[in-house]
């Protein structure tokens, strides 16, 4: 028997997104909120450096706002922003709990421009609260408040390639400084951030491609959507036949593919001792509108109408990752967020 843990009257549904810095959380948030309609914007008339984004149904808060140490304080204490000692988990728990129960809070603001802790801003309880950052699942009290957990797992090789593109090519940083920055954060990342993925319901794993040997620029990607089985509030998407193991090259008369092509995979697996279903895409689309052909072979994607995934992808075609599996699986995960919301509230979200 399926038991739905319904949200109480006026209670907010809480979604958690964990990832390292520079791993695409902002793009993902825009895709997820796009599923619910409206454009996420900073609080009107508030701090221009606020990290909060508000749309019709969702409010996204950045957990960096719960840093207990500002940038200078971390230097003095010789800790990174990834270390638990630099976080105020007590306040994080109190405020997420209050928002979940329909109460407004005065949330602090961590200013990413100045590195200072700015005066707080008022956050009113939304229908859906998305908490994103480094530590959403680290503290058990906070983790227990979250209804659906997502982890963005970017491989070291891909993260390094992205950071070179952003910091070296766009910001003029040296290769040595980039390497030093990555190495200085890695011990804390491995100790405190990475283990959280074991608690996630859905993991989007981004890896170097298998289609091009020694591809090191991070432009062609192999992306895996790892979905926990046996969850109360959602069931995994699959390709062709649920529970089978399938490899599929869709390139041909119905899907245009330039080098190196596209390969999809689906099958059962285990992840940290739990049964999972895995969807995988390697390569990228040449013509995004042809995604409808691939979408037609995916099942249990939580769409409301034929072609909704393709519509969402085309609507945000300028977002990073729109032509590869990161965009595709972010949209599917966004649809799963909608499914979780509807299950918990027993309220249907209108088509957008």
From TrEMBL:
Keywords: ATP-binding, Calvin cycle, Chloroplast, Disulfide bond, Kinase, Nucleotide-binding, Photosynthesis, Plastid, Transferase, Transit peptide. It catalyses: D-ribulose 5-phosphate + ATP = D-ribulose 1,5-bisphosphate + ADP + H(+). It is found in: Plastid, Chloroplast. One of its GO terms (biological process) is reductive pentose-phosphate cycle. Gene3D superfamilies: P-loop containing nucleotide triphosphate hydrolases. One of its GO terms (cellular component) is chloroplast. Signal peptide: none annotated. Pathway: Carbohydrate biosynthesis; Calvin cycle. InterPro entries: P-loop_NTPase, PRK, PRK/URK. The keyword Plastid applies. GO terms for molecular function: ATP binding; phosphoribulokinase activity; protein homodimerization activity. The keyword Transcription does not apply. Its EC number is 2.7.1.19. Residues 14-212 form the Phosphoribulokinase/uridine kinase domain. Belongs to the phosphoribulokinase family. This is Phosphoribulokinase. The lineage of its organism: Eukaryota, Viridiplantae, Chlorophyta, core chlorophytes, Trebouxiophyceae.
């Amino acid at each position: 028997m399926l038991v739905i843990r319904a949200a109480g009257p006026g209670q907010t549904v809480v979604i958690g997104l964990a990832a390292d810095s520079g791993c695409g959380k902002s793009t993902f948030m825009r895709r997820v909120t796009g599923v619910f309609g409206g454009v996420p914007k900073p609080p009107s008339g508030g701090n221009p450096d606020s990290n909060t984004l508000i749309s019709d149904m969702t409010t996204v808060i950045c957990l960096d706002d719960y840093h207990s140490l500002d940038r200078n304080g971390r230097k003095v204490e010789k800790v990174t922003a990834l270390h638990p000692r630099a976080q105020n988990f007590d306040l994080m728990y109190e405020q997420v709990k209050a928002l979940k129960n329909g109460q407004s809070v005065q949330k602090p603001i961590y200013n990413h421009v100045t590195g200072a802790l700015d005066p707080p801003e008022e956050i009113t309880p939304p229908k859906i609260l998305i908490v994103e950052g480094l530590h959403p699942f680290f503290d058990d009290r906070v983790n227990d408040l979250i209804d659906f957990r997502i982890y963005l797992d970017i491989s070291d090789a891909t993260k390094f390639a992205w950071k070179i593109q952003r910091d070296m090519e766009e910001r003029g940083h040296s290769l040595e400084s980039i390497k030093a920055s990555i190495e200085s954060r890695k011990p804390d990342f491995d100790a405190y951030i990475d283990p959280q993925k074991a608690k996630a319901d859905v993991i989007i794993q981004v890896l170097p491609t298998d289609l091009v040997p020694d591809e090191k620029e991070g432009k062609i990607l192999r992306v895996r959507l790892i979905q926990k089985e046996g969850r109360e509030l959602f069931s995994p998407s699959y390709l062709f036949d649920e529970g089978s193991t399938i490899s599929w090259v869709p390139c041909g008369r119905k899907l245009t593919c330039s080098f190196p092509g596209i390969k999809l995979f689906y099958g059962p697996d285990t992840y940290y001792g739990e049964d999972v279903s895995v969807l995988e895409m390697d390569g990228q689309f040449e013509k995004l509108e042809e995604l409808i052909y691939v979408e037609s072979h995916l099942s249990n994607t939580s769409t409301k109408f034929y072609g909704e995934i393709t519509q969402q992808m085309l609507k945000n075609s300028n977002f990073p990752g729109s032509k590869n599996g990161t965009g595709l699986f972010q949209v599917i995960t966004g649809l799963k967020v909608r499914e979780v919301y509807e299950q918990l509230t027993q309220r249907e979200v209108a088509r957008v």
